[in-house]
Amino acid sequence: MKKKLFKFLKIIASLLCLLILLITIGIFWPMPTLQPPLKHDTVIIESINIIDVKSGHILEKRNVLIKGNTISAIDSIEILNRDPNSLIIDGTDKYLVPGFWDMHTHSNQHSEWLHHPLYIANGVTGIRDMSGQLDRRDSYWAGSKERLVWNAELNENKRVMPRYVLQSSYQIDGAASVPDGFPEFFKLQKPEHIDSLLLFYKNEKVDFIKVYQQIIPESYQQLAKKAPKYGLHLAGHKPVFTSLEEAILLGQRSFEHGRVFMFESFPGADSLRTATDWKSFYSKSKKSMIDDFDPVKAKRLMTLMSKHDAHWVPTLQTLKFEAYAHETTFTENPHLKYITGVRKKLWWNIDRSNNAKRNTAASTKGVSKDFYEASKKQVQMANQLGVPIMTGTDVTDSYTFAGFSIHQELEELTKSGLSNLEAIQSATIIPAKYSKKEHKYGSIQEGKIADLLILNQNPLMDITHTKDINGVLMNGIYYDTDKINELKKFTESVASSYHMNVKVFFSLINSPLIRVQFAD
Predict the structure, then answer these.
(1) How many CA within 13 A on the CB side of residue 366?
(2) Residues 240-280: pLDDT tens digits?
(3) Under 8 Å CB-to-CB from 288, ≥6 apart: which residues?
(4) Residues in the chain with pLDDT < 70?
(5) In degrees to the nearest 10, what's the CA dihedral of 224, 225, 229, 234?
(6) Whole-angstrom Cα distance, residue 32 to residue 354?
(7) Backbone angles phi, psi at 220, to 5 degrees
């Protein structure tokens, strides 16, 4: 008996050793690298149709000269004195638009392999990241230090990646969002914490403070008043316990997600702001937010947003997922091959299952779909009243796909009442102006950076033509069709690899920030 037990324990010990070895190999296995295409001193795009995103006019059969990473000349006649070593791109019957910006994403330590290639392959040349770190490097989330290094390496042509146009703090969400062992000032529970937090993020070269839902009103008010003194602004969720009107008047520059006006325009709005368990109250109130929606109040708030130049990023993809999580026609997405198995099993499948149960339960059947449709109508209202709308997808949320989802979001915006031109503006010139970078980005003009997208068909005629990509120029470097396919295959291969899944798993479980977010 003892011999059998000893033999059994020996087998178990051997299996454990093997498991530890396999995990160690997965963690330390070197990652593949992507090489950007060859950089040419000059690039000439010949006879291409340029879409003026400001007016909607098309400048037909133009020649575009790019020197380094800058648009040097745009002309209707042949560009003379060309360098014989120039890269020549035939633009005949094609259309040139500025590279798209996704103004709501979440990068992590694996974005180099899982996100960046797909952004470029889909013509997304700029992103505003809405996540960050506290006072130390996180195993999962990326922070401003990493992103600024990435940007520098992009400019040196060492990375395949979009430009990180604005840097975010960690989400500021009250005491519960800060893990043990981190400085108390991140919790914003005392008046003196405000300056400490703002000074910290100023030194981290952050551009804005990402505010979240549960920040207490007193802290939010002081944060909003003091942030400009540090060269920072507020962006993110509308805090639950503060009215949208007050948040606008306090200067929050952008509001995220499609439920912003739903929270404020139903009879229980005041009760929601004072509820002890606001999440439960919100869940029970969703039907009322739809059925008892007050368009007069919503339009007053939209007009106020327009007056104060407060931007809205509806991220309609997130609501669409909640609405259709029970339908296989939605969930059997071909782009799932670009997502690691760990993320699908530990995050997306759980999220999908929970939403599917709500969508099929007798008491909540159809509510999420009605909520989604109502939010689209509000996008139309807001656009008509002059609220500046920006395109955002909320990568890495469930069923949002880096790069691919920007085209779906553009389509959803047109289904919500925006014209094709207005949808394109929401991903180009409007984000550039919001970021105060319109002198370099957002439209095709001499002197601007050559972050460009070559399309086979005119997106002003059909917004789905944004997906028909012939080539991408990122910082003046040309990605042709073959290179675009290589980028997609690269991420597909990495996402399915054993070692990447091990890395993702251990970065998730070792992240104190992820642990508190999931606990919440």
Answers:
(1) 4
(2) 999 999 999 999 999 999 999 999 999 999 999 999 899 99
(3) 266, 267, 268
(4) 1-28, 78-82, 519-520
(5) 10
(6) 35
(7) -60, -45
For residues 171 and 210, give the distance between their C-alpha atoms in angstroms, rounded to a whole number.
5
CATH number at residue 331: 3.20.20.140
Q: Which helix (H) or strand (E) holds 221?
A: helix 217-226
Question: Contact 238/312 with Cβ under 8 angstroms?
Answer: no
Q: What is the pLDDT of residue 85?
A: 82
Amino acid at 245: E
DSSP for 29-92, written as a single string = SPPP--PPPPP-SEEEEEEEEEE-TTT--EEEEEEEEEETTEEEEEESSPPPS--TTPEEEE-T
Q: Is 21 contained in some domain?
A: no
Per-residue model confidence (pLDDT) at position 84: 75
8 Å CB contact between 268 and 294: no
The string of pLDDT tens digits covering residues 277-308 is 999 999 999 999 999 999 999 999 999 999 99
DSSP secondary structure of 285-298: HHHHHHHT--HHHH
Coil, strand or helix at 131? coil
Q: What residues make up the domain containing 165?
A: 99-437+481-489
Inside any domain, residue 510:
no
12, amino acid identity: I
Residue 426 lies in a domain: yes
Number of domains in the chain: 1
Residue type for 129, please? D
Q: Which two tokens stand for residue 130?
A: 């809405």
Instruction: From 371, 384, 376, select the one nearest 292 (Cα to Cα).
Output: 371
First and final CA of the chain: distance in angstroms?
A: 49
Is 313 among the domain residues? Answer: yes
Instruction: Give Dmax (Cα) for the chain.
Output: 93
